[in-house]
């Protein structure tokens, strides 16, 4: 499952979202490249590089495989974990199941409620569009428009570089299997109700109509060392649409761990 490792120092496990691959998390490497952390990027089962041997049939299977990969790669070495969307749900699971070794947890537009019908989400809103960008987007236009709140040249460049390759390479058969059983067998904060006292970061887009932000904010009591941030001008790809602020927040989270 390990797609690549960048940097040196303490391990930071990076977990991507559903239907994409590790490349959507690569901006994190730029954000932390001068820090004493090595980012370990995993490809989840539907990713092009992993799908050939994938056997996972549910979110529980994915979570078990991620834990096994981390245990096999790190042993008892302490680590931090960050996840985006579906990967955020898995990151919370990992942090709680390996609490003794978890230095901290962060989520970027993380899934809280697996079922879409249970999520509190805002209405779909696009804040800025540059028609010329959409006109030249080609066959990537529909996917870009569907998720992007800021539709300008910079946003499309980030989407084309970090999101589109994973979308195009994802295995639909593996995705269908897991989508049919998308929930963990227990909410991490309910299975482990004692507060998670390591530094945490939970970042949301104010215009995210995929997972929203209200459900994530409801977890705030469980994370006494948690920063909960809702960014305006960002949807489900909050870390791409607000890259600078996201980088600063991730660096702050790691600094809190370092202290």
Order of helices and strands: EEHEHEHEEHHEHHHEHEHH
Shape: globular
The overall pLDDT, averaged over residues, is: 95
List the uncertain runs. Answer: none
Provide a count of the helices: 11
Computed CA radius of gyration, to the nearest angstrom: 17 Å
Q: How do the strands of the widest beta sheet line up side by side?
A: 1-3-2-4-5-8-9
CA-CA gap between termini: 31 Å
Biggest β-sheet strands, sense, barrel: 7 strands, mixed
Instruction: Tell me what portion of residues adopts beta-strand conformation.
Output: 15-25%
Structural class, by secondary structure, is alpha/beta
Using DSSP, what is the number of strands? 9
Helix content range of the residues, please?
Answer: 25-40%
Keywords: Hydrolase
Protein name: Alpha/beta hydrolase
Pfam families: Abhydrolase_1
Organism: Curtobacterium citri
């Amino acid at each position: 499952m390990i797609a690549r490792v960048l940097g040196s120092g303490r391990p930071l496990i990076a977990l991507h979202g559903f239907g994409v691959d590790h490349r959507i998390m690569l901006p994190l490497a730029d954000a932390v490249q001068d820090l004493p952390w090595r980012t370990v990027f995993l490809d989840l089962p539907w990713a092009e590089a992993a799908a050939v041997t994938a056997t996972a049939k549910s979110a529980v299977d994915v979570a078990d495989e991620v834990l096994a990969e981390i245990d096999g790669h790190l042993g008892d070495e302490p680590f931090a974990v960050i996840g985006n969307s579906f990967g955020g749900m898995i990151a919370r699971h990992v942090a709680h199941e390996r609490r003794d070794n978890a230095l901290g947890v962060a989520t970027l537009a993380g899934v809280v409620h697996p079922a879409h019908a249970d999520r509190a989400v805002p209405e779909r809103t696009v804040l800025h569009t540059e028609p010329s960008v959409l006109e030249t987007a080609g066959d990537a236009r529909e996917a870009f428009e569907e998720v992007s709140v800021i539709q300008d040249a910079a946003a499309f460049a980030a989407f084309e570089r970090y999101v589109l390759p994973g979308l195009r390479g994802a295995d639909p058969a593996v995705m269908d299997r897991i989508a049919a059983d998308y929930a963990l067998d227990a909410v991490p904060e309910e299975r482990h109700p004692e507060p998670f006292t390591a530094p945490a970061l939970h970042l949301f887009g104010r215009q995210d109509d995929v997972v929203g932000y209200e459900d994530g904010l409801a977890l705030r009591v469980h994370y006494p060392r948690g920063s909960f941030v809702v960014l305006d001008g960002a949807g489900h790809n909050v870390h791409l649409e607000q890259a600078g602020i996201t980088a600063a927040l991730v660096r702050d989270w790691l600094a809190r761990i370092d202290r």
